[in-house]
Amino acid sequence: MSPPTSNGKVVLVSGINGYIASTIGLDLLKKGYTIRGTSRSAHSADALLKGAYEGYVDRVQMVSVPDMTIPGAFNEAVKGVIAVIHTASPIDFSLKSWNDFVPVAVAGAVGILLSAYKHAGPQLESFVLTSSVAAIIDPSKKPYDFTEADWNTYSGAKSKELGDAAPGGLLYQASKAEAERAMWAFRDEHKPPFSISAVNPGVVVGPPVQPPPTASALNETLRPTWAVFSGASTDIPPAIGSASYVDVRDVAAIHVWCAEHPIESNGQRYLMANGRGTPQAAADILRKAYPHRKQIPVGEPGSDYEEGYGWPKDGQSFDSAKAKKALGREFVLYDQSILDTAKVLERYL
User: Fold this and answer.
1) What confidence tens digit (pLDDT) does each residue in 39-69 have?
2) How far apart are CA 227 and CA 234, in angstroms?
3) Which of 22, 46, 74, 329 fits 112 for a cystine, CB–CB 3.0-4.6 Å?
4) Contact 56, 31 (CB under 8 A)
């Protein structure tokens, strides 16, 4: 099948070589868009051009943005685009303090938004931010069903209380909430003529469109699946956060939907979490699908997740009805996501 012809429209995707962004980019290319991808290095996306994007190279533009926190870093990149999808994050998990973490995250979100506001041009229709459930969830609320109306105020307050003793995970959660809040504050103050929306996914799983050269370079959220599939971990690894999962293909789809539906998505958040998918559940799924792989750890089968990978009855849950309605379908289930991921990971065995 030949690639679709160009629709003449350019979409900027920041951090294009990332796990989520590369999937968004491929979805856009399949729809006929030209994508302008940013990365820290001009050559860091070479693998995409020779791999997943190979059939679309005439509609792929690459721009180097070494430091997105510098004012004006995206001034040239935004010119002429009809949508900006901002997935890139300047966060470095070696950082240890609030002042290192939060202002950097805020600068990354507001900087590209300001560039879009001042330099993109009148054709710009949409700005979509990749936020996180970390901007929504409050660990102190349980049982509780979170919606887009909720905000994580706990992590910021707790981080300030702990000061230099605040763990990186807590600071990360606070930074996601503060960065998204800064985006909405910008919207309230400047009232831009383009739509602004946020996507708030849980732990993103599912097959990468461009697998890295080695398993050690896998995205952080795929590492537990690799650990059990490969047998690198003899024990079941711990879950990431609340283990609220969503497939990367669903996350990419809602970003594209927001970009293509500026009127409907303007001012909206889209919470994306389909249930609780743990590494124990992944191990159980993979042992059944790959009975010859005796290296897959057993753990305690069925012990920490619900049938159908739903939400625990007396725990925290997330309502993703708005995103599902926008897409007009249900999300990919955890077992399918894990099996599709395993197919990709087979190359590393």
Assistant:
1) 998 788 899 999 999 999 999 999 999 999 8
2) 8
3) 74
4) no
> Quick one: tokens of 87?
């997935």
Ranges of the chain with pLDDT below 50? none
Amino acid at 18: G
CA distance 260 to 330: 20
Q: Residue 23 corresponds to which amino acid?
A: T
pLDDT for 169 equals 83
Nearest-angstrom CA–CA distance, 224 and 220? 8
Per-residue three-class SS string for 276-317: ECCHHHHHHHHHHHCCCCCCCCCCCCCCCCCHHHCCCCCCEE
Q: Which amino acid is at 125?
A: E
Sign, CA dihedral 247-248-250-254, equals positive
276 close to 305: Cβ distance less than 8 angstroms? yes
pLDDT of residue 114: 97
Residue 313 half-sphere exposure toward CB, CA atoms < 13 A = 1
φ and ψ at 91, to 5 degrees?
-70, 135
Residues in the chain: 349
Predicted pLDDT at 97: 81
- Cross-strand bridge partners of residue 244: 276
DSSP string, 85-151: EE------TT--SHHHHHHHHHHHHHHHHHHHHHHS-TT--EEEEE--GGGT--TT--SEEE-TT--
Residue 262 to residue 126: CA distance in whole angstroms? 6
What single-letter amino acid sits at 278?
A: T
**Residue 328 to residue 40: CA distance in whole angstroms:** 35
